[in-house]
Amino acid sequence: MKMLFRLFVALAFLSPNVVAVTPAAAMNSRIKDIASLQAGRDNQLIGYGLIVGLQGSGDGFRASPFTEQSMRAMLQNLGISTQGGQSNAKNTAAVMVTANLPPFASPGSRIDVSVSSLGDATSLRGGTLIMTSLSGADGQIYAVAQGSVVVSGFNAQGQAATVTEGVTTAGRVPGGAIIERELPSRFKDSVNLVLQLRNPDFSTAIRIADVVNGYASARFGGPVAEAKDAQEVIVQKPRTADLTRLMADLENLVVETDTPAKVVVNERTGTIVIGADVRVSPVAVSYGTLTVQVTETPQIIQPEPFSRGVTAVQPQTDIAAQKTGGKVALLNGPDLRTLVAGLNNIGVKPDGIIAILQGIKSAGALQAELVLQ
């Protein structure tokens, strides 16, 4: 309750588009939540295939000749002769098929695949992906995909208007690929475990090694972990340990994480994320804006009755200049609440706070890394 109260008090000072990470949010985390196993990474698969059954929204064979070539080759493999006339049906589309092969995947299990149009097809809705082999970076086939394509977007077109929502040239086949080959490496053949931090940090890596060594000393009688750098922690396998059971025990150990001080700014959305350890040296800030409004109100002048004059337009321009802001505030951020309260007391919008943070960084008073997105 005490930590939740501190978090609520810190967020109460924030403007809607300013987000802060308070020290109360920096809680202890399990190793499985902050690090991943190097031997347990995904592998990317890719393939080329055809989608059939489209309602006239497929590739045009003149603009996409590879679609016709692929269709003829497929029919020949099925024993159907393709010599003769040329087909103009637009119910077929060439697509690139991609998928992620999860770690420790066994033959016979299913994975989702994504399909993306390669030609000039306008929609893949209602189509069916026919048998497509998926290969890895080594050129070996690891899965075969086939199934109905699910497209979230749609388009409706008439003679004078067109309505499109989402993307209709890409979709997914849930559970559409069957794994046919397992990865050559086996988990239990490893002699050590390599833990990779998702957010590299030397302090966190040392703490992971210390926590693992504390567990190993009590369980196996000696240390087994060593922090190689800011991202990798190597754990040697004890001779009497089962590697699967060892990893299950290690990934549930709790470690106190640490992160460098950062301020992340997204100028497109006006979002500001301030880390918990951000500090600002004493600095005076003044922010003001000058608004110039130009209004055109032309007047129509009519000639006198029975005169030979012509109607004329007399331009009239009104220019108004308004200057706002200009308040000077003293910022001193010994903690996060003081910093955010000082920024909000200046009375500027988030885009103004972004400019102020950039100026404070240029002045050398922002003791954190400023990341612009």
From TrEMBL:
Transmembrane segments: none annotated. This is Flagellar P-ring protein. It is found in: Bacterial flagellum basal body. One of its GO terms (biological process) is bacterial-type flagellum-dependent cell motility. It comes from the Bacteria. InterPro entries: Flag_FlgI. Residues 1-20 form the signal peptide. The basal body constitutes a major portion of the flagellar organelle and consists of four rings (L,P,S, and M) mounted on a central rod. Assembles around the rod to form the L-ring and probably protects the motor/basal body from shearing forces during rotation. Belongs to the FlgI family. GO terms for molecular function: structural molecule activity. HAMAP family: FlgI (MF_00416). GO terms for cellular component: bacterial-type flagellum basal body, distal rod, P ring; outer membrane-bounded periplasmic space. Keywords: Bacterial flagellum, Cell projection, Cilium, Flagellum, Periplasm, Signal.
